[in-house]
Amino acid sequence: MILAASHTAPSRTERRNFQRVPVKVYGRYMLEDRSEHPCQVVDMSPGDVSFLSNHPGQLGEKVIAYLDHIGRVEGVVTRRLETGFAMTILASERKRDKLAAQLTWLANRHELDLPEDRRHERVSPRNPMTVLHMGDGRQYKCRIIDLSLSGAAIELDVKPALGVEVTLGNMRGRVVRHFDDGIAIEFAMVQREETLAAHFSGH
User: Fold this and answer.
1) Fewer CB under 10 Å: which end of the chain, C or N?
2) Contact 86/96 with Cβ under 8 angstroms?
3) Per residue in 72-127, pLDDT tens?
């Protein structure tokens, strides 16, 4: 094991080496009983991570997480929180270096563009009527208010919970904001312009 002291709080030196940065990344994780659950990263370092989740594991339980923009991360539950849990990341030095670079990029990205990602121009599609698919199979007709390569604002009669996985067209994403008439979605991956055009530029 790379990290022997997984059941204790990190030392002051470790905290300096592995300073957590606030990033908003979504994903799924698997517990030892092979059950899978959605999660959102609250903050993360190359050595540990805290998640928002409704199904925290037990202390000492091994967790395998698959996170958007980051990939597979393995660890051990070190703390149960009111809103989720924290885990120590089990990784080689090479993997930690890669994580550090990914986290630097993500932290800067979120400082610059917020959930709406204003670097990507928002447009109103020619064909705004579409269907929002929920993870449990429910479908809702909706109207796209505006759309960018990284997300969409849609007019919708229901308000799925923040962090819930949804699919708009064939684009997977998460609910990141509620407003009076609908919701904002952040796509799991930045889309290609051709993909958006193919789905939302109908005549």
Assistant:
1) C
2) no
3) 899 999 999 989 999 999 999 998 988 888 887 777 665 444 444 444 566 777 77
- How far is 137 from 4, CA to CA, in rounded Å? 43
Are 167 and 156 within 8 A, CB to CB?
A: no
170 — pLDDT class (breaks 50, 70, 90): confident
Q: Is the pTM of this model over 0.70?
A: no
Contact 69, 106 (CB under 8 A): yes
Distance (Å, whole) CA 95 – CA 31: 21
Torsion, Cα 27 137 127 188, to 10 degrees, reads: 10
